[in-house]
């Protein structure tokens, strides 16, 4: 479905401009919230890095003696590499946060410019709303005058009362007609400006959504790359562990700790 804002933001209340303007401002809110989200993710990665460093230190403080000692070295190395990967994520997400913060600042300036440049449209909207209300009110009053005359005729009122009511009706008719005549150019100006404004707001939203998607695409790529690298660490850890068979560990022990090959004579 191809969306065209120019097809959807009209209506009896003529409040399409207000909806589109506030929607534009929500874009700035979204960019700031995304910044907060990524900052929190960076904090999580930093915490994970510290925890993995703590875990590596724990493995490093394991008993260095005995046949199981080589396994502790593998556990320590794996934890250190994972800690490093989490720290890399902190750095990369921090860069992403900087980019989004810069974008939010530029977006704020852009919104201020739009507000100033669209002041004429806002005036046209307000004029249209006021004129529409005035025309509707005049129409209702004119209808009321007509109903009043019909009632007077049914009630066989005096000619004087009827003439007085008809005079009011003619005056109300003139007022109504004048308001309609004034309303037409106001309506044309409103439609002209809103047509242009709808396109502008849609261009702004499309550019905003494209940029926000690019930020998220970068984030997803960071996650995927980090996931792959973490997987490599786990794969390497598994490979090293599998190679450390009971026989291999015993072999390393005797090669490092043997006391002699010859039995006493």
From TrEMBL:
Chief subcellular location equals membrane
SMART domains with a match to the protein in the record: FCH
Q: How does it sit in the membrane?
A: Peripheral membrane protein
Taxonomic lineage of this organism?
Answer: Eukaryota, Metazoa, Ecdysozoa, Arthropoda, Hexapoda
Using the record for this protein, list the coiled-coil segments as residue ranges, or answer none.
Answer: 135-182
Give the UniProt record's GO annotations in the biological process aspect. Answer: clathrin coat assembly; clathrin-dependent endocytosis
Residue ranges of the F-BAR domain? 3-250
List the Pfam families hit by this protein, alphabetically. Answer: GMIP-like_FCH
> From which organism does this entry originate?
Lutzomyia longipalpis
Keywords assigned by UniProt? Coiled coil, Endocytosis, Membrane
Q: Which InterPro entries match?
A: AH/BAR_dom_sf (IPR027267), F_BAR_dom (IPR031160), FCH_dom (IPR001060), GMIP/FCHO2-like_FCH (IPR054713)
Q: Which Gene3D superfamilies match?
A: Arfaptin homology (AH) domain/BAR domain
Similarity remark: Belongs to the FCHO family.
PANTHER family, sorted: AT02057P, PROLINE-SERINE-THREONINE PHOSPHATASE INTERACTING PROTEIN 1
For this entry, the protein name equals F-BAR domain-containing protein
Q: Where in the cell is it found?
A: Membrane, Clathrin-coated pit
Q: Could you state one GO cellular component term attached to this entry?
A: plasma membrane
PROSITE patterns per the UniProt record, alphabetical: F_BAR
């Amino acid at each position: 479905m191809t969306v065209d804002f120019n097809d959807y933001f009209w209506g009896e209340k003529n409040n399409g401009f207000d909806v589109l303007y506030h929607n534009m401002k929500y874009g700035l809110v979204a960019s700031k919230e995304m910044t907060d989200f990524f900052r929190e993710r960076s904090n999580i990665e930093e915490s994970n890095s510290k925890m993995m460093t703590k875990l590596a230190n724990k493995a490093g403080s394991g008993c260095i003696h005995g046949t199981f000692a080589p396994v502790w070295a593998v556990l320590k190395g794996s934890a250190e590499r994972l800690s490093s990967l989490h720290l890399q994520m902190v750095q990369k997400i921090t860069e992403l946060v900087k980019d989004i913060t810069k974008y939010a600042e530029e977006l704020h300036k852009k919104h201020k410019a739009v507000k100033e440049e669209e002041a004429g449209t806002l005036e046209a909207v307000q004029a249209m709303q006021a004129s529409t209300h005035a025309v509707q009110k005049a129409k209702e009053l004119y209808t009321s005058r007509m109903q009043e005359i019909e009632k007077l005729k049914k009630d066989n009122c005096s000619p004087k009362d009827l003439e007085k009511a008809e005079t009011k009706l003619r005056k109300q008719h003139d007022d109504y007609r004048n308001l309609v005549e004034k309303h037409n150019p106001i309506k044309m100006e409103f439609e002209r400006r809103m047509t242009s404004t709808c396109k502008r707001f849609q261009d702004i939203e499309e550019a905003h959504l494209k940029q926000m998607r690019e930020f998220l695409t970068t984030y997803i790529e960071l996650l995927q790359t980090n996931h792959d690298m973490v997987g490599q660490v786990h794969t390497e850890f598994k490979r090293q562990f599998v190679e450390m068979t009971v026989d291999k560990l015993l072999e390393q022990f005797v090669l490092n700790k043997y006391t002699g090959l010859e039995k006493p004579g």
